[in-house]
């Protein structure tokens, strides 16, 4: 297979898509060659010798369009026979006509609650849509293939046993993700205030900033809420954090707080679990993920928009820790078993291989 991978950013330092180079390494193990077409390509990627990259650039809509079509044409001229569009249905739409003319298989990876016209049009044109969970693709289609996430469990790993002892007295909470209403940081702040009111020394670190228009205004309101609650010295905002730095943030936390309302399996929870850090989430899709944990992971869940429920869950994972709390090893095992990156990459190639062979 000669795979053409279409994505937004190929950069190990990117705070959101920093995992993509590791995906490419995994795909390259099973492909004759992999070419990545991205808007931006970082430095010092150190990718396998059968991988190359084409940078489209961000400036000029017409310029991007022309460069994209040139990159697609060049790849098909050089025998690339399979296309995987990553997260952006528009990329699948751009590739659809030249892929059909050249007999190349076209696929989409998509994990988002949003369903728009572009996704619907892409669904009609691709052979399969890969997604991490049933809830990660809200478009009903027989083309959906649920694969699990692809977490680099070597990158996201626990501290060595001799370094696990923590000296800090305060409970360290970590939130990770964009500051948006869908992530519900208000409930996290209210839960922190409840813990402090109950006499528990707790602090919150939040990694992630805004991306879309309006995100900054919302973030300003959240920071104002911190002051209203008198939590100024207990909350630390980090903004965007480069992907290589995230494991240290997870390992410094006692609890990963995930208040997202997207309803899909949020990979930050899986990354924390791979690091052996206890998560607590209101996301209903994790019922299946947690099924093999003690008490089916009940200690790791709380009710949406319910700060008291979240505060109680944090207490149950820390000061009132009981037998229903999963151990670090149990948490990590779920990710290794069901969401490991090389397993996912091999699965994706297998899923795309039959169509390629049928054209031979």
From TrEMBL:
GO MF term set: mannosylfructose-phosphate synthase activity
UniProt EC number: 2.4.1.246
CDD domains referenced in this protein's UniProt entry, alphabetically: GT4_PimA-like (cd03801)
SUPFAM superfamilies (UniProt xref): UDP-Glycosyltransferase/glycogen phosphorylase (SSF53756)
Keywords, sorted A to Z: Glycosyltransferase, Transferase
InterPro entries reported in the protein's UniProt record: Glyco_trans_1
Residue span, Glycosyl transferase family domain: 171-314
Name this protein carries in UniProt: Mannosylfructose-phosphate synthase
């Amino acid at each position: 297979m000669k795979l053409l991978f279409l994505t937004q950013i190929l950069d190990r330092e990117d705070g959101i898509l920093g995992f993509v180079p590791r995906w490419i390494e995994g795909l390259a193990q099973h492909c004759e060659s992999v070419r990545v077409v991205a808007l931006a390509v970082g430095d010092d990627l150190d990718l396998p010798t059968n991988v190359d990259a084409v940078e489209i650039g961000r400036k000029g809509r017409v310029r991007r369009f022309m460069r994209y079509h040139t990159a697609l044409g060049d790849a098909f001229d050089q025998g690339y026979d399979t296309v995987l569009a990553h997260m952006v249905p528009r990329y699948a739409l751009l590739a659809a006509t030249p892929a059909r003319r050249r007999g190349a298989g076209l696929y989409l990876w998509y994990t988002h609650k949003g369903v728009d016209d572009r996704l619907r049009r892409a669904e009609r044109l691709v052979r399969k849509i890969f997604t991490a969970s049933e809830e990660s693709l809200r478009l009903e289609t027989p083309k959906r293939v649920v694969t699990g996430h692809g977490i680099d469990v070597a990158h996201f790993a626990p501290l060595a046993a001799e370094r696990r002892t923590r000296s800090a007295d305060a409970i360290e909470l970590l939130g990770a993700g964009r500051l948006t209403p869908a992530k519900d940081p208000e409930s996290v702040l209210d839960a922190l205030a409840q813990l402090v009111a109950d006499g528990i020394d707790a602090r919150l670190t939040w990694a992630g900033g805004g991306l879309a228009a309006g995100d900054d205004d919302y973030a300003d309101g959240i920071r104002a809420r911190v002051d209203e609650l008198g939590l100024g010295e207990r909350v630390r905002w980090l903004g965007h954090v480069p992907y290589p730095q995230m494991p240290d943030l997870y390992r410094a936390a006692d609890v990963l707080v995930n208040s997202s309302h997207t309803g899909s399996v949020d990979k930050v929870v899986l990354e924390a679990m791979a690091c052996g850090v206890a998560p607590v989430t209101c996301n209903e899709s994790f019922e299946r993920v947690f099924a093999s944990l003690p008490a089916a992971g009940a200690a790791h869940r709380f009710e949406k928009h319910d700060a008291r429920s979240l505060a109680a869950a944090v207490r149950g994972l820390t000061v009132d820790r009981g037998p229903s709390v999963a151990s670090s090893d149990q948490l990590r095992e779920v990710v290794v078993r069901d969401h490991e990156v090389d397993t996912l990459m091999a699965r994706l190639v297998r899923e795309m291989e039959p169509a390629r062979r049928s054209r031979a």
